[in-house]
Amino acid sequence: MIGSSIRALAVVIPVHNEEQLLSRCLQSVEVAVSRVRVPVAVYVVIDASTDGSASVARRHPFPVVKIDAGSVGVARSVGVTAALRGLAPAADRRVWIANTDADSVVPSNWLTLQLGLARGGADMVIGTVRPDFADLTPQHRQLWLDTHTPGRPNGHVHGANLGVRADVYRAAGGFSDVPEHEDVILAERCRTAGAHVVASDLAEVLTSGRLVGRTPGGYAAYLRDQHRGLGAVTPEPV
């Protein structure tokens, strides 16, 4: 499907107890959506939240879906299904699915970049993320900078910055019902199926630099490991 134009966008944001960070995420998505000229369906999926995340989400102009799965894989899958249904009858090969996380802030060119890469033949776009330096010590911030070279995306898969063509997503089986690494699993399946995967750092997403996340692993675990490498005492996930 090289060069096929995208006629619609689905944006999915899973949320679990993110009332403190969710509003800034949704505000950034609003800006990114305003930059594109195709129909966009944004769905916020509140999963097993016990805080005020749902109330925060309803202050923004996006549909909110509430589930009680306790699984980011299920939350993403539910959001994608709802968004694609809302965009019908657009053909899957003309629909692009963009994913981010509730603790993240997307840049204004987040969607325009993915659309451009899709029009150039990408079936999946793996974007980079950067931790919020306000959450890191000066030593940890410098370590991160020393190990990340601008213009050289490392190809690590992050659900906070991941896009995929809808027909490729369906062919790969969608997001798995797992508590974490659903993004990595999907990327592996897409590659196995022969999808053209492009890594880019031209629309880097800012994400929380916390050392204890909403799952035992994920990006917070990566930052914890870096922190330990500095000889610092780090908190363990509960």
TrEMBL record:
Domain Glycosyltransferase 2-like, chain residue ranges per copy: 11-144
Keyword NADP: no
Predominant cellular place of this UniProt entry's protein: membrane
Single GO MF descriptor: glycosyltransferase activity
Family from the record: Belongs to the glycosyltransferase 2 family. CrtQ subfamily.
Known function: Catalyzes the glycosylation of 4,4'-diaponeurosporenoate, i.e. the esterification of glucose at the C1'' position with the carboxyl group of 4,4'-diaponeurosporenic acid, to form glycosyl-4,4'-diaponeurosporenoate. This is a step in the biosynthesis of staphyloxanthin, an orange pigment present in most staphylococci strains.
The protein's name in its UniProt record: 4,4'-diaponeurosporenoate glycosyltransferase
Organism expressing this protein natively: Microbacterium schleiferi
Species lineage: Bacteria, Bacillati, Actinomycetota, Actinomycetes, Micrococcales
